Every structure is written in structure tokens, then in C-alpha cells.
UniProtKB/TrEMBL annotation, chain A:
<keyword id="KW-1133">Transmembrane helix</keyword>
<keyword id="KW-0812">Transmembrane</keyword>
<dbReference type="GO" id="GO:0020037">
    <property type="term" value="F:heme binding"/>
</dbReference>
<dbReference type="InterPro" id="IPR016174">
    <property type="entry name" value="Di-haem_cyt_TM"/>
</dbReference>
<dbReference type="Pfam" id="PF01292">
    <property type="entry name" value="Ni_hydr_CYTB"/>
</dbReference>
<protein>
    <submittedName>
        <fullName>Putative Ni/Fe-hydrogenase B-type cytochrome subunit</fullName>
    </submittedName>
</protein>
<dbReference type="InterPro" id="IPR011577">
    <property type="entry name" value="Cyt_b561_bac/Ni-Hgenase"/>
</dbReference>
<keyword id="KW-0408">Iron</keyword>
<dbReference type="GO" id="GO:0005506">
    <property type="term" value="F:iron ion binding"/>
</dbReference>
UniProtKB/TrEMBL annotation, chain B:
<dbReference type="InterPro" id="IPR027394">
    <property type="entry name" value="Cytochrome-c3_hydrogenase_C"/>
</dbReference>
<keyword id="KW-0479">Metal-binding</keyword>
<dbReference type="GO" id="GO:0009061">
    <property type="term" value="P:anaerobic respiration"/>
</dbReference>
<dbReference type="InterPro" id="IPR037148">
    <property type="entry name" value="NiFe-Hase_small_C_sf"/>
</dbReference>
<keyword id="KW-1003">Cell membrane</keyword>
<dbReference type="InterPro" id="IPR006137">
    <property type="entry name" value="NADH_UbQ_OxRdtase-like_20kDa"/>
</dbReference>
<feature type="binding site">
    <location>
        <position position="61"/>
    </location>
    <ligand>
        <name>[4Fe-4S] cluster 1</name>
    </ligand>
</feature>
<keyword id="KW-0472">Membrane</keyword>
<dbReference type="InterPro" id="IPR001821">
    <property type="entry name" value="NiFe_hydrogenase_ssu"/>
</dbReference>
Length: 258, 356
């Protein structure tokens, strides 16, 4: 005796796909060259909001940690709100930073092949090692990458991925710690146990990791200019337009491989 | 033998019932209770008997005892004489030697599960550092803890390890929570804790027969739920951006925020800014000294008193994050410049090789 089934439901069974790697669009210019649409609009918007957020958060953050200017009106606290504004801006931009990053995480799944990264492959680490050798001017087998090379991807995992998570968790803990009973307080009070238990340890993490972002920015900007200088493929303009100029063979070859 | 209730004790000492009610009202306020809850305190004091208290001191400086005897609301004599019966204390017991040790034995024997154990100071894990009369500190503590109704850790040493546990911690000192896991321990950190907080905690246990509400670290919420920073009388200057740059500048004279002379108020949970000290007269920040964060875990290792620093995780090293950060960025920039120079040279060589 079989269980009655609804054929309509049977047919509707869908396949769950973890990540559909979407190939980057390209425009053929001539027999040799193509314009590859590497950075889609959400990626570029993310990049610039993120860059802006980090800049503002760093300036206001250093001010909060070590106020480098004082209010111009002396004696009375009534007339000024310098630290107050620095903190407000810091908090507001922190929310912007968080929402921005959330959208980018979504785009890891929705975006094209260059919007994602998979460090759980052996080839990722092998190629990252080749890239390190390349940057140390050693003999290497580094391929030409249209998107990010594995070492660059790794740096994003560490700084933009892990670094941001540490900054957000510790930051929201510090923001909400005066109201441990509020809903936001309850959401973040556990963070203290992860970062040393007391307010001071959490704060220390927040201060130290912040400078990691600045070191990352220096190296990141340099590497982008260097790539542009060596490859002449429009790396610098690509973060505004989205397009990189690539040899047809390489652009299509790399795509065929996947 | 029937013991007298707290009310009976008070009346026996020549106070009137009116005095007793006043005492209860002050007590309720100290415990952070609403005025309408005063009757609960009165009822408890009328019915409950005095609670025996054993006060043990280990690796401490007696500062907590000194703070305790400066309690003004409730006055320490009313706590000591009316509410509790302090059976054993190295500082306050009139008896000494065998007599006072006998008093301790008496409590352990006759009041198991009834007495409160107050502990001041941390315990060394190496017995060689603290053995009194042939009995190690650990043994003394564990024996007293066994039959205790509640254990109160007075001061930062017994709560977190404190100064004895500060780097390099020669005695391998640990807080009392390290040695007893099966008993509720209430932490009252501070170096020393505020007198009214110390008596308030005891009063709460006597009144309600249970612990006050504790936070995630085991401290009573009534006294440790706010940061000094959020209740600071100089907070307006912080938000305004007016800071004393040194202890003798115009800002310090005007009463500006002490953040830049190293105030630890933003990371310190205590009720100094609300309860204040010495009967509510003042507290360090009000008197012009930045908070040193004495009630926080590991405060002695959290950097020097008058600078704000960041601690490198899992170490005792504190650094100035801005200075070290700026140097690190400078080194990175120099590395980048060197790398760029090599890159440019290599590229030139390649052009040269190709005969361009």
C-alpha cells in the first residue's frame, strides 16, 4: 500500500545549490583584448563606503581614545559637545559599516566569480604561497589573476573579514555596556567572555585591531597602484568603473578553467 | 538556647523602637531598595536573629577591614553589635590567641549552614607562603567555607587575585573562587570596597535570607551595575571635550575631565560616583584624582595609574595603542617604499633586457 502523494509537490522538488559561480561579463574590444566587468556595482559601492567608514571611524576613534584637540570655549561644559559629536559620528558610521558589510556578505553568494573566495582548497594556499614568492621577487609560478590573487583574498579574509567581526563585536559591546539589561546589551554582553572578560580587555582589542586596518590600507593601496603600474590593465580605474582590460586569451582561458 | 532577634538586641542596648526604625530605613536606602520596601527590612529585623560572621584574612593589607569600620549608613557599630555577631576577625576581635580560635571553632561546630564567611585577601596556591600556626591558608579557608551559608569576597584580592596576584605573582595567588566551586560566592571588589557597599551586602543577606541580584561576574548589581564614567560628576566636561592635560594646569583647576591624565572610569564598574566615600563626602575623581580602576579584574596589571593604555591580549604588557600603531604604520610605509623602489628597478631591468 503506497502513501498517496501529490504529484505537483513531487515535481517541485528543488535542488539546493550552495554557491552558483557566475562568470564575469566581458566586452570584446578586438582580437586580442577584452574588457572584463570584474567589480560589479554592489562591490564598488561596498568598497567606497567601507573605505569612507574606516577613515571616519579611525579619525573619530583615535580622537575618542586620545583627544587630540580640546573644545575652543573654555571653562563651561555647556557650550561644547566635541567628544559627544565624535562619539555620535563614530557610532553612526559604525552602523553604516555593519550594514555595508552585511550587504557585501550577501553579495559573496549573489555576485560573480570575483566577488567570492574559497580558502578551503589546497590550491588556494599553494597559489597564495606562489604569490608571496612573487612579491618577494623570488622565482615563482604565480598565474595572472583577473580578480584578486589568493594572497589578496587572504588579506581580505583576515582584515575585512575577521578584523571587521572583531571590531564590530568589541565595538558594540563597548557601546552597549552601560545598559547591560537592554536588548542590545543582552545581545553583546557575551562578547566580554571572548575577549578577556573585563571591559578593559575588550577595549584593548578594539584599539589594537583598529591599527591593523590602517596597516592593511597602506599595503592595499600600494599593491593596487603597483598592479596597475606593472600590468597596465586599468586596476586603479576598475574600482570606479568595474572594468579591467585583459588579454582575451587570459580572460577567457581563466574562465574556461572553472 | 534561644537567640535574640535583632530587634531585641537593639532594645536591649537602650535604643528605642524609633531608633530601630530609623536604622532600618537607612539600611533599606543603602541596599538600593525602594522606600516602600522598608517594611520588609523592618519585618526581617524583627524576626531574624543575629547572623554569626567569620571574617578571615589571607594575603591582604587589612585595607578592607579598615574601610568596613568606616561605614556610616548603617553605622558600623549597628552592623557589628545589632545585626551580625562578628565571631572571628583578626582586626576587630577583642580576644586573641586560643580564646578567639575557640570562638571560631564554636561557630563552625554550632552554626553549620548559618554563618556568613567573609574573606579578605587572596590565597596562595603554594602553602609555603601562608601557613598560620601550622595550618595552611587553603585549609583554613576550605574548613570555614564548608559550613558557610554564604561566602562574601571582600576586596579585589579575594575577588580577582588583586595585588598579590599581580605580575609576576610570586605566591601563585588565586581568588577564592578558584578554591570553592560548590558554594555561592558574592564578589565585592574594590581596593578597598566602599564601606556602605560592604555593609549593604551583609544587610541584604540578613534581610532577605538570600543573595542580592548578581551580574555576570558575580558582583551585586545594586552596587556594580554602572561604570564610574556614566555617573561621573565630570562627565559633562568629557562630552564637551574639555580635558585636564596635567595635574597643575588651568583645566585641572576648573574641574575638567581627567580622561587625559589616565582616568580608568570608562572601564571601571563601581558605585563610587553614586555612593561616594566617607559617608558620601567625595570620591577620587571629585577630589581631582583620576580613577585607578581598583575594582576591576587585574587592575594592577592594567598599566600605570595615570595613563590610558591598551593591553596586549594574553600578556601583562600594556602599550600606548596610538603611538605603537603610528610606528607600525610608519614601518609599513617604509617597507612599502622600499618594495616600490625594488619593483621599479626590476621593471627597468626587464625593459633593458628586452632592449627597449
Amino acid at each position: 500500500m503506497s502513501i498517496p502523494t501529490n504529484p505537483k509537490i513531487e515535481q517541485k522538488r528543488t535542488e539546493v545549490i550552495w554557491k552558483r559561480s557566475r562568470k564575469a561579463k566581458h566586452i570584446e574590444l578586438n582580437d586580442h583584448m577584452v574588457k572584463v566587468y570584474v567589480w560589479e556595482l554592489p562591490v564598488r559601492i561596498f568598497h567606497w563606503i567601507n573605505a569612507f567608514s574606516i577613515l571616519v571611524l579611525m579619525i573619530t576613534g583615535v580622537f575618542i581614545g586620545r583627544p587630540f584637540v580640546s573644545a575652543s570655549i573654555q571653562e563651561e561644559a555647556y557650550y561644547s559637545f566635541l567628544m559627544g559629536w565624535a562619539r555620535y559620528i563614530h557610532f553612526f558610521v559604525a552602523f553604516l559599516f555593519t550594514i555595508n558589510l552585511a550587504v557585501r556578505w550577501y553579495w559573496v553568494y549573489k555576485g560573480n566569480e570575483h566577488a567570492t573566495s574559497n580558502p578551503f582548497r589546497l590550491s588556494f594556499w599553494k597559489e597564495a604561497f606562489e604569490t608571496i614568492k612573487y612579491y618577494l621577487f623570488m622565482k615563482n609560478n604565480k598565474k595572472h589573476y583577473i580578480g584578486h590573487n589568493p594572497l589578496a583574498q587572504l588579506s581580505y579574509w583576515i582584515f575585512i573579514g575577521l578584523g571587521s567581526i572583531i571590531m564590530m563585536l568589541t565595538g558594540y559591546y563597548l557601546l552597549f555596556e552601560p545598559q547591560p539589561e537592554s536588548i542590545y546589551g543582552k545581545m553583546f554582553m557575551w562578547v566580554a567572555h571572548l575577549f578577556g572578560g573585563d571591559s578593559y580587555s575588550v577595549r584593548s582589542w578594539h584599539h589594537l585591531v583598529a591599527w591593523g586596518f590602517i596597516i592593511f590600507t597602506v599595503v592595499h593601496v600600494y599593491m593596487a597602484f603597483r598592479e596597475d603600474y606593472l600590468q597596465r590593465n586599468g586596476t586603479m580605474s576598475s574600482i570606479f568603473t568595474g572594468y579591467k582590460l585583459e588579454r582575451k586569451k587570459e580572460a577567457l582561458g581563466e574562465q574556461d578553467e572553472k | 538556647m534561644k537567640r535574640k532577634t535583632i530587634l531585641e538586641e537593639v532594645l536591649d542596648r537602650g535604643f528605642t523602637r524609633r531608633d530601630f526604625l530609623k536604622m532600618c530605613t537607612a539600611l533599606a536606602a543603602t541596599m538600593g531598595l525602594d522606600f516602600s520596601q522598608t517594611d520588609q527590612v523592618v519585618a526581617a529585623m524583627e524576626k531574624n536573629q543575629r547572623v554569626p560572621v567569620i571574617w578571615l584574612q589571607f594575603q591582604d593589607c587589612t585595607g578592607c577591614s579598615e574601610s568596613f569600620i568606616r561605614s556610616t549608613h548603617p553605622k558600623v557599630e549597628s552592623v557589628l553589635l545589632n545585626m551580625i555577631s562578628l565571631e572571628y576577625s583578626e582586626v576587630l576581635s577583642a580576644a586573641s590567641g586560643h580564646q578567639v580560635e575557640a570562638a571560631l571553632e564554636h561557630v563552625l561546630e554550632h552554626y553549620p549552614g548559618e554563618y556568613i564567611l567573609a574573606v579578605e585577601g587572596s590565597l596562595p596556591t603554594d602553602d609555603a607562603f601562608l601557613t598560620v600556626g601550622g595550618v595552611s591558608a587553603k585549609e583554613t579557608f576550605l574548613r570555614a567555607a564548608k559550613g558557610a551559608k554564604a561566602i562574601i569576597a571582600y576586596g579585589s584580592c579575594s575577588s580577582w587575585g588583586g595585588i598579590p596576584a599581580a605580575y609576576p605573582n610570586p605566591t601563585k595567588a588565586k581568588p577564592i573562587t578558584h578554591f570553592v566551586k560548590d558554594k555561592p560566592i558574592i564578589l565585592v571588589p574594590g581596593c578597598p570596597p566602599i564601606a556602605e557597599v560592604m555593609t549593604g551586602v551583609i544587610a541584604h543577606i540578613i534581610t532577605f535570607g538570600k543573595f542580592p541580584e548578581l551580574d555576570h561576574l558575580g558582583r551585586p548589581k545594586a552596587f556594580y551595575r554602572h561604570r564610574i564614567h556614566d555617573k561621573c560628576n565630570r562627565r559633562a566636561y568629557f562630552d564637551a571635550g574639555l580635558f585636564a592635560e596635567s595635574f597643575d594646569d588651568e583645566g585641572a583647576r576648573q574641574g575638567y575631565c581627567l580622561y587625559k591624565v589616565g582616568c580608568k572610569g570608562p572601564t571601571t564598574y563601581n558605585s563610587c560616583a553614586e555612593m561616594r566615600w566617607n559617608g558620601g563626602v567625595s570620591y577620587p575623581i571629585q577630589s581631582g584624582n583620576p580613577c585607578i580602576g581598583c575594582s576591576e579584574k587585574g587592575f594592577w596589571d592594567n598599566g600605570p595609574f595615570f595613563v590610558r593604555r591598551a593591553k596586549i591580549p594574553a600578556s601583562q604588557t600594556t602599550i600606548n595603542p596610538e603611538t605603537v600603531g603610528a610606528i607600525a604604520v610608519g614601518v609599513t610605509a617604509a617597507g612599502v617604499a622600499a618594495h616600490a623602489a625594488v619593483t621599479a628597478m626590476k621593471k627597468k631591468d626587464e625593459h633593458h633586457d628586452r632592449g627597449e
